[in-house]
Amino acid sequence: MKPLPRLILCDGLPGSGKTTTTQQLWLHLDSLGHEARWWFEHELNHPVIGFDQARAAQQAGGAEARQIFAQAHAGWAKLAPQLDAGRGITLLEGTLFQATVGAQLLADLPRAEIVAHFDRTLELIAPLEPVLIHLRQENVEAALTATCARRGPWFLALLRGEFAATARGRRVGRNEPAALP
Fold first, then answer.
1. What is the per-residue pLDDT across 54-110, written as a single tens digit (0 to 9) for each?
2. Domains in the chain, number
3. Cα(68)–Cα(142) distance, rounded to whole angstroms?
4. Is the separation of the CB atoms in 36 and 161 below 8 Å?
């Protein structure tokens, strides 16, 4: 029997089910007697990159964003050996893509830098043989539209305001999240 993973990453768009999926998996592992730690994407003292850090990077762009994402690598570099030495399972929600790759896109960093950052992240966590649960949406625009409809007008207003405050939002001069690609 293959041993359980030490690191499980759950990622996807807002509203894709990251929190629900990760929480249910954590509860299931706990019910089976496994030592597991779930890190909610907005949790304070997140071991890799906190929501406030990712948000600050998105808004600042440039050198300040690069420094914040370098700290994320430091977080991965610190976390990986701890997980490798431990017995438990760590579940990270929204950390691999949303809080880093997505935030780097919003920080308006060049794609080559984003790819290099992602590749380095994979190098840091590869020894752990992580499991990725990617709640991928075939049609991003339709998925975001459905999430906004489900959550209500406040959520679209929030997304628009957040996007407008990012380095990319300021550069493209729009407040529509669909301007991301």
1. 999 999 999 999 999 999 999 999 998 888 787 789 999 999 999 999 999 999 999
2. 1
3. 31
4. no
